[in-house]
Amino acid sequence: MKKVTAVLLKHNGKLLIAKRDEQRELGNLWEFPGGKIEKGETAEECLTREIKEEFQITIKVEEYYDESIYEYEFGTIQLIVYWASWISGEINATEHEDYKWVTIGELHNFNFAPADIPIVERLRREENEFSA
Ligand SMILES: Nc1nc2c([nH]c(=O)n2[C@H]2C[C@H](O)[C@@H](COP(=O)(O)OP(=O)(O)OP(=O)(O)O)O2)c(=O)[nH]1
Ligand SMILES: [Mg+2]
């Protein structure tokens, strides 16, 4: 099983989501930015590295949120999700087709990768409970 990290990067009450490149697996689907954990790396180190590579910004990884396991045709992934905040730099999306800052309430307008769906649902559920 492949371990993949993903980030809930909070900034001004919104989260960063990104659209996967058409040419790659799960092309054109939206995701929480991140990537595969490399040998000898912690999840936090992986996230900091991936976000630097893919968006050229420095983040601070905060608390663990949740994880999701999904069996794709190309293999099973364990998606490990953390909260984080933006420390420095300006966003330059080097690998994604597009990116957006959205509120939790807007997440349902985007077509997410299957592994992300339980995460999106939990976020939305908690948001609704909080404002109820
Ligand atoms: N980063 C990320 N990957 C996800 C999410 N949901 C999901 O199913 N995946 C899948 C897509 C890929 O099959 C796998 C790894 O993600 P990735 O393509 O970002 O990996 P990476 O940045 O390390 O890039 P590479 O080494 O493949 O070039 O996890 C998600 O929310 N974020
Ligand atoms: Mg990636």
From TrEMBL:
The enzyme's E.C. designation: 3.6.1.55
Pfam families in the record: NUDIX (PF00293)
Boundaries of every Nudix hydrolase domain copy: 1-125
Enzymatic reactions: 8-oxo-dGTP + H2O = 8-oxo-dGMP + diphosphate + H(+)
UniProt-listed Gene3D superfamilies: Nucleoside Triphosphate Pyrophosphohydrolase
Record keywords: DNA damage, DNA repair, DNA replication, Hydrolase, Magnesium, Metal-binding, Mutator protein
Family: Belongs to the Nudix hydrolase family.
PANTHER family: 8-OXO-DGTP DIPHOSPHATASE (PTHR47707), NUDIX HYDROLASE FAMILY PROTEIN (PTHR47707:SF1)
NCBIfam families in the record: mutt
Protein name in the entry: 8-oxo-dGTP diphosphatase
Native organism taxonomy: Bacteria, Bacillati, Bacillota, Bacilli, Bacillales
Gene of this entry: mutT
